[in-house]
Write a structure and sequence with these properties.
The structure is a homodimer. Chain A is an alpha/beta fold. Chain A is built from six helices and six strands, in the order βααααββββαβα. At the A-B interface, α5 and β6 of A face α5 and β6 of B. The first copy, chain A, binds a DNA duplex (25 and 25 nucleotides) through α4.
Chain lengths: ~160, ~160
DNA sequence: ATGGCTGCAAAAGTTTTGCACTTCT
DNA sequence: AGAAGTGCAAAACTTTTGCAGCCAT
């Protein structure tokens, strides 16, 4: 499976600190009848710290470093729960990997280099316009936008030309 | 795994007929040292006819209806070969399914209703601008853009409000 | 003829589930 | 207390691979 998760923008406008997001998560969990367990907190922490793109297994291994007994099922179950809750959001990348990342507040998208695999994030004002346009045209209430571009970065283009 | 394939836009401006795409495919295959087999043709035909979003298994079952001996490995191998060749392109949707669709000529994107699962396709001129903007800002040569929006369609909104 | 392709079966990998036990609230 | 959560192991899926024979070119 290949997808990404990102923590949805914290809805208050203050700088979201770790404490904020943890408390926020706890509230969200609570109001859904779910609990905050050490595993859950650990997983949330890993996802929100890790500014890299982590997959389920990466998260599992990182979690195991800090809490050796944790099981992979727990990771999967929690990713699913958090996703369902809306605390975490799936993105979909290339074929073989699932990654996870934080999205502190601003909506951003991904640009993947097909040469070196580098992932660049970018913000985009046009997306907002696009969203409005499509919402209007199709009569949808749009809740999420994900833009995924692929191409070759400057360095890889240079390398390619040399060959 | 969850991704979509779509036949990349036929590069001549004539209305792409089945014959055209098949010949085109054959040429592309040939120049890569690959062959056109009955299975390959069948799979290509299924993908290019099926205007629905089919996953690997759907394709397998449809193929089996017409050629009972075909194997799932063959479907996978072909999807991969066609993808590598660029005759087919992967998209990434929601979590649990892989779909395939045809993209006759114009770039288009997807809007998924979270209520009823309906998938609406849309074209978007802003995307071209967006592409240019990002290419320029990040120094990339951009080869593909995929936009994926989620939300609720008019009907599902009505239903929701009634509740 | 010869190198790509296929079917079959087995393997590899990822995600889900059943169950008994534990732990938040 | 009671419901949600956990670990473990097994199951369910999806995708990939090895191999012997087949078939486009």
């Amino acid at each position: 499976m290949l997808y990404l998760l990102q923590i949805i923008s914290i809805s208050d406008n203050k700088m979201p600190t770790k404490k904020h997001t943890l408390e926020h998560s706890r509230r969200e969990l609570g109001s859904a009848g779910l609990r905050m367990t050490s595993q859950r907190a650990l997983i949330l922490d890993i996802i929100s710290r890790g500014h890299k793109h982590l997959d389920a297994d990466d998260i599992y291994r990182l979690a195991r470093d800090r809490q050796p007994g944790i099981s992979l099922s727990t990771v999967y179950r929690n990713l699913q729960a958090l996703k369902k809750l809306g605390l975490v959001q799936e993105l979909h990348f290339d074929e073989a990997h699932h990654h996870y990342e934080v999205k502190p507040s601003a909506e951003h998208h991904h640009l993947v280099c097909l040469g070196c695999g580098k992932i660049v994030e970018f913000g985009c004002e046009l997306c907002q316009e696009m969203k409005k346009e499509i919402a209007c045209k199709k009569g949808f209430d749009i809740t999420g936008v994900e833009v995924h571009m692929t191409g070759y970065c400057a360095e890889c283009r240079k390398k390619r030309n040399k060959k």
